[in-house]
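Researcher: Here's the sequence for the chain we discussed earlier.
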Amino acid sequence: MSRSKSKRPAPSTPEPQAAPGIEPAATAPVEPAAPAVAEGMVAPVGSGSTVGAVLRVWFAAYRVEVLLFLVAFVVLASFSSQRFLRQSAAPHFIYQAQGWLEGRLDVDPQVLPNLEDWACVRQVNGQKVRCEGRPLPDDRWFVSFPSFPAVAMLPFVALHGYQFNDTSFGVIVGALAVALFYSLLRFLAREGETARTRDENVVLALTLAFGTLFFYCAIRGEVWFSAEVMGVALTCLYVRNALRARRPVLAGVFFSMATLTRTPLFFAGLFFVLEALCPGPEPRLQQLKELGRHWKQAARKVGLFALGAAPLGLLAAGYNVYRFGRLSEFGHAYLFNNRVNVDIDRWGLFHWEYLGRNLEAAFLKWPSLSLSPLKLGYDPRGLTLLLTLPLLVFLLVPKLRPRLHWPLWLTVAVCALPGLFYQNTGYMQFGFRFSLDYTPYLLLLFAIGGWSLRQRVVMGTLVLGVLVNFWGAVAFRGYTELVRNW
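Model: Thanks. This is the structure I predict for it:
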């Protein structure tokens, strides 16, 4: 199919913004006011001196986050290489956003860049069914993924249209996610939930960036990987506001954004519920026993959380009904001419039949070594998490089990289960990429688990994770490159 596009200038890089609800560090030095603002004098609004003073104060408060953002951006952009300068071959969210701007809820089939992972709906006897065979003029085409990434791209697509570069946008979001994860770790330390120092938190943030599957996902663009990376950024904002259920409305807002980016993150709502029920330092069993006297406060927080999540949730549900006739259907049951349709028709999107191959992809796939010629390879269906996230071994034998130990583990469990029973392992991929949905929670478990980063075995494990994921960032060639020779 041909697509009619107009040439647009390359997208500009947005400036990093401070996340909502993030307070400055308690020990951050605050610069004095500029000399022009003397006692009894008021500087003109918008004057250079006032703006400069505000920027200095802001940088003093968030200097580590800013530096982490810049370091992550430079490294991720460098590894993205030529991809960084061009739109990816799977820019589904751009086409969805442009469709909205053109006043339509579907996607114009005349401009589709390819037919990979698009949902096609056909009306047959008044029923919505998946398109089979050749496309027909009356078929309706939709993005088969949750829509919030398209919402985030909307202002930039409004400026650049179909030419917007989703690859560079993904790199920026990835760098922002690294800064947000550090900010979350710093917040947990200030709240007494961890005993990590600033330097340790920096190391853990860099571990997320370059020692997990986040590394190769953040440099590619493409609909599959960009959603994973944005999900990590929104998870950091959600957990920060959900801690002890202190900001229920904001937690609900970020929860809905995360869920409408990656549907498995819907189950992370359990973390807020657990924090609302047991926010104190007392043993959880004791707090649950006393809940009968304090249930109104917990119910109020859960209600406010639902209130924050409702606007986007209701919009998404209505959009799903309009497109596919069901509240929770994002489009994968309507994938056009996809290899997974046979399994979906037989077993559905989720079934115990898929468990074995997903467990194999997550834990049992190991690299292959060829001696003639010498070559190290991987299976594009998966690679064991023991290599792509080797810190897992320390989570099984923590030295400490503080207050957040069980809430984090339960959140990991409920987020992981959908991916293990899902019809697709994530192919093609480097490692089990669905684990990125709960990787921030796993790293938080390590942060509270008491293992010192100075121990040689821990340092060696961190280095191993970086080396393996460096390999993934360099070696992985996905579907759009291998099959389309893009």
